[in-house]
Automatic annotation (TrEMBL):
PANTHER family: FORMYLGLYCINE-GENERATING ENZYME, SULFATASE MODIFYING FACTOR 1, 2. Keywords: Signal. InterPro entries: CTDL_fold, Sulfatase_Mod_Factor_Kinase, SUMF_dom, SUMF_sf. This is Sulfatase-modifying factor enzyme-like domain-containing protein. Residues 86-365 form the Sulfatase-modifying factor enzyme-like domain. It comes from the Eukaryota. Residues 28-87 are annotated as: Disordered. Residues 44-83 have a biased composition (Basic and acidic residues). It comes from Batillaria attramentaria. Belongs to the sulfatase-modifying factor family. Residues 1-29 form the signal peptide. Pfam families: FGE-sulfatase.
Length: 381
């Protein structure tokens, strides 16, 4: 891994009880330096925990290289980017709703029990953060993502070129379609021979929780809490699977980007996409006007992961004070009812804060609308 001495913990979120497996041996029969932990033979994503000492060394190197950012906070300027802006926010009125469910599909994920939760009014990004928006952040600040610092990230085998696959000597025994790819990062989603030239309006990928927090801070925003995300997803509807109701394809139409076909062999792309879709694609998924709040990419939230919930009323919960993993919500283009049925509003999963992957992105929230977004004349800023 670029000469770095570190241990990567690759956790696959699955449907049953926890267990441990190891990565396959190198071609010469020796063990890889990385280890893998897994819950079963079925996964919904991957989790990579970097060696802290190596991470600190890399972080110090990045700090030294990027110690003179152009700006610490977004300052709108005409001509900032040639791409159409997608950083608009919608108002979410807040209120009390039923979070979780008493009919969990993945009990081990802590989907239940159902409990009454109150959230204050807030704002939510209408769209997932796109490559264009993230590029603006990087250009203004000189930020370097953790995937870039560590030199690799995880990608599903289906999306890799034969050249990239020929250089990989590792795989996850229980989920061999997830591969650690050298050179995979937000600019090169499928490895060194890929780019985002024609995907600037698609969601940014390979961003860790730490990267997402840095972006949101720059934008004068923050990550949503898990409760805020789920409230926004439900759109005022109680006891419904999806933001719009219980039908996967309302009125026979596709309203989200998920996997069609036999997983993991082939995504037939019946919804129009075999990988990510533009952040502006598909109808608004509920009355709040949000797009792709489920499907397309998993999205980071503020909260530390926990699975022990009580049915008692909670007022603006923010999760545990500490933990090992962060909550992600919404599912991705790799989710399917056959395998990873986690694109439901109450569904949830987890990753370490430094994890990155080909199906993981984010959107921001804010308690108050940033000043540069106020006023109809600034809607496109």
């Amino acid at each position: 891994m670029g000469g770095r001495s570190r241990t990567a913990l690759f956790l696959v979120m699955l449907m049953t009880f926890a267990g441990f497996v190891s990565l396959a041996a190198d071609a010469d029969g020796s063990k890889n330096k990385e280890t893998c932990s897994s819950d079963s033979t079925e996964d919904c994503g991957c989790k990579q925990s970097r060696d802290k000492d190596s991470k600190k060394k890399d972080a110090d190197e990045v700090k030294e290289a990027d110690d003179k950012p152009k700006s610490e906070f977004y300052e709108p300027r005409e001509g900032d980017t040639p791409y159409k802006r997608t950083n608009q926010m919608v108002y979410v009125p807040g209120g009390t709703f039923t979070m979780g469910t008493d009919k969990p599909i993945f009990v081990a994920d802590g989907e239940g029990p159902a409990r009454q939760v109150k959230v204050d009014p807030y704002y939510m990004d209408k769209y997932e953060v796109s490559n264009a928006e993230f590029e603006l952040f990087v250009n203004q600040t000189g930020y370097k993502t953790e995937a870039e610092s560590f030199g690799n990230s995880f990608v599903m085998e289906n999306y890799l070129s034969e050249e990239v696959k020929s250089e990989i000597t590792q795989m996850v025994a229980s989920a061999p379609w997830w591969l650690p790819v050298d050179g995979a990062d937000w600019r090169h989603p499928e490895g060194k021979d890929s780019n985002i030239k024609d995907r600037m309006d698609h969601p940014v990928l390979h961003v860790s929780w730490n990267d997402a927090v840095a972006y949101c801070k720059w934008a004068g925003k923050r990550l949503p809490t898990e409760a805020e995300f789920e409230f926004a997803c439900r759109g005022g509807r109680e006891n419904r699977l999806f933001p719009w109701g219980n039908s996967v394809n309302p009125k026979g139409q596709h309203w989200m980007n998920i996997w069609q076909g036999e997983f993991p062999k082939e995504n037939t792309g019946e919804d129009g996409y075999t990988m990510t879709a533009p952040v502006t694609e598909f109808p608004e998924q509920n009355k709040f006007g949000l797009k792709n709040i489920i499907g397309n990419v998993w999205e980071w939230t503020q909260d530390w992961w926990e699975i022990q919930h009580t049915p008692t009323f909670k007022d603006n919960p923010k999760g545990p004070l500490s933990g090992d993993d962060k909550v992600k919500k919404g599912g991705s283009f790799q989710c399917t009812i056959q395998y990873c049925y986690r694109y439901r509003c109450e569904a949830r999963s987890q990753n370490t804060p430094d994890s990155s992957a080909h199906n993981l992105g984010f959107r921001c929230a804010a308690s108050e609308l940033p000043s540069y977004l106020k006023g109809s004349e600034k809607d496109e800023l």
